[in-house]
Amino acid sequence: MSGSGRMVARLTLVVALAGVMAACQTARFGGQPQQREVVRDLEPGPSAPSGIVMAEPLGAPGSGRIDDFPELEPRTASAGDRQQTAALSEPAPQPSRLSRTSLVGSWNASEPGGGSCRVTLSSTPALDLYRASASGCSNQEVASVNAWDLRGSEVYLYKQGGAVAARLQASRGSMSGAISQSGAPLTMSR
Questions:
Q1: β-strands 116-126, 105-110: how paired?
Q2: Is the pLDDT of residue 93 over 50?
Q3: 146, exposed or middle or buried, with CB in 10 Å at 0-12, 13-18, 19+?
């Protein structure tokens, strides 16, 4: 291509681009914004009502004004309402919540085979668990207990090395479950 040929090609490209740009600027393609009427002088409107603000000291706590509330008309109670009211007035039995502190202390363990021994649950921390000890236990799993933990209502007894020695369902005065390795029953009471 000669110099004039390149010049014509460039000029054609510029004209084509100008045409595309002009087409993009039309209102049809969202180009020129429409002229909007600008209100220069605003007429003042009515102002917000202003009144005198008065301050009063608050009354003593609990001395609300009862006469501010509307009185309700008494309703005659049906038999179903009376039963429902009686059921609501009786306190529901609260489940006894177990805590670690309620389980701390000495427990009499009934071992498999009829023997018994002492298991003491301590509140002294031992890493993520709490210290425990067993004395006079003939069952090797129970005798090796050195830590414990409470998870929900289950007590886990651990032996050295972190393996679970026994898992017991606990209540305030007793625990019952099984020794992990043998599956033999284990109960503990105060």
A1: antiparallel
A2: no
A3: middle
Give the closest residue to 103 by CA, choosing from 39, 136, 149. Answer: 149
3-state secondary structure of 123: strand
Say if residues 135 and 117 touch (Cβ distance below 8 Å): yes
Average confidence score pLDDT of the chain: 77
Distance CA 139, CA 113 (A): 9
pLDDT tens per residue across span 66-92: 555 455 566 665 655 555 555 555 554
C-beta separation of 104 from 186 below 8 A: no
The predicted model scores a pTM of 0.50
Q: Rounded CA gap, 190 and 177, in Å?
A: 15
Q: Return d(Cα 190, Cα 110) in angstroms, integer.
A: 11
Residue 22 three-state SS: helix
21/79 Cα distance (integer angstroms):
84
Beta bridge partners of 131: 147
